[in-house]
Each structure stands twice: as C-alpha cells, then as structure tokens.
Amino acid sequence: MGIRAGPAAPTKSRSTPWVSLAGSGKGSGMDAITLLKNDHKTVERLFKEFEKAEKAGDDKTKSSVVGSIIEELSVHAAIEEQEFYPAVRQAVPTVKDEVLEGLEEHHIVKWTLSELDGMDPGDERFDAKVTVLIESVRHHVEEEEEDLFPQVRKALGRKRLGEIGDAMEELKKTAPTRPHPRAPDTPPANVATNKASGVLDRARTGAKRGAAKAKDKAKNKTETAKEKAETAKKKAEAGKAKGRAKVKAKAKA
Ligand SMILES: [Fe+2]
C-alpha cells in the first residue's frame, strides 16, 4: 500500500494537509533522525538485555524485556509510519522504494510482536521468535541508518527535520503501545486508527500493570505472614526448650 500524502486529516484541528502538520513549535527541537536513532539505541539495549537473560536462562527477565520491546517497537513504528515516512516521501520522491520496503519490514515485525504478545518464555518457540525478531529489526535499522537517513538529512535540512521530530515526539504520547499488524499503516487511515488503538492499548497496559502490582502486594503480604508465623513458632519452641531445661535442672537439684 502506498503513502498518500495529500488528503486532509479527519480531525478538525488538522485543517492543512496532514504531512505539513509536523512541527507545532512546542517540541524539544530534536530532529527526526536523531529521535529515530535514539529509539534504535533503546531497542538495541533491550535486545542485548534479552540475549544476556537467554544465556542465563532467566525467564522472568526475558518476559519483562520482551514486554518492553513490544511497547518500544509499537510506538516507534507508529510514529515513523504516521509522520516520518510520509513527510520523507513527499519531500524526497527518490526514496519511495526504501520507504515501501521499510513499511513491509515494519509489517513483518508487527506480526512477530503480536505473536510474542501472547507467548510465555516457557514456550519452546519463544526464544527462536525473539531471535528472528532481533535479526529483522537489526537489518531494518542498518538499512535506515546507512541508506535512508543520510539521503533524507541531505534533502530535508535541519529546520524541517526539527519540525518532523517535534511532531513525532508529540505523537509518542498517544501512539499505540501494542502491535496492530492488520491496522492501516499509511495516512490518512492510520491517523484515526493509531489514535483509537493508543487509547485502548494504554488502558490495557494500565490494567495489566495494576493487576501485576496487586498480585505482588498479595504475594508480599503472604510472605510476611509466613515469616511472622515462622518467628512465632521458633519463639514457642525456644520457650518450650527453656522450660524443659528448667525442669531438668530442678530434677538434678
Ligand atoms: Fe523503521
């Protein structure tokens, strides 16, 4: 599916063609390529963490790291697809093929992420799936950083990249945090679906974290009660031993 850069966005606030909205002037001013490269560094750190946990056979860490990978890559794909790729395609028509390839790579990554989303480290395919995901993302990052980004930097310039960076930074606050491989990945359709998915994903993540917190709290309570019972038992046994020693001492006397 190609990127359509012209149509007006479906929201009232977006009265100009959506690709020109990048740059509200309210962001940190980080340029788009630096922002995307920082995201790449974040996921690479997570990949290394996973590989370390895999070697150590640490399922708990593997599970939480994969949760973070799912969240990071879902947000990253959404902001790149909604703001960066369309703006780039509009300004640098010669990179059309690279952008289309990037979209296809995102699509495959989102499918893998959505499968991992319902899997457990105990599943025999879990590690293999994460390994393939890591290989795919590293390949995608290499292509973007070595081929696409230099061409884009040259063609767009600092000011425009700053505007797109601001728009992506803003979109990060509401973007989907879970993978949606069946959802549209080009404008204008992805503008509305990303917004709706972002709300649902964040509610779901919030509920999940709340449940995990409550579970931890209950576990801690049970452990504290067990420790208290153990201490009381030890005290009672010590008291009994003391009593028996007293009786023995009396009998000897
Ligand atoms: Fe990408």
Which spans of ≥5 residues are poorly predicted at pLDDT below 50? 1-25
The percent of residues in helical segments reads over 70%
Through-space gap between termini: 99 Å
Sheet bearing the most strands, described?
none
CATH topology: Four Helix Bundle (Hemerythrin (Met), subunit A)
Classification by helices and strands: mainly alpha
Bound molecules: fe (ii) ion
CATH top-level class: Mainly Alpha
- Based on Cα principal axes, name the global outline: elongated
Q: Kindly provide the radius of gyration, computed on alpha-carbon positions and rounded to a whole number of angstroms.
A: 27 Å
Describe it.
The structure is a single chain. This protein is mainly α and 253 residues long. It has a single domain (18-209), classed as Four Helix Bundle (Hemerythrin (Met), subunit A) (Up-down Bundle), CATH 1.20.120. The chain is 75% helix and 0% strand. It contains five helices and no strands. Helix 2 crosses helix 4 (126-172). It starts with 31 loop residues before the first helix and ends with a helix. Residues 1-25 have low confidence and may be disordered. The site of fe (ii) ion has 5 residues, from helix 3 and helix 4.
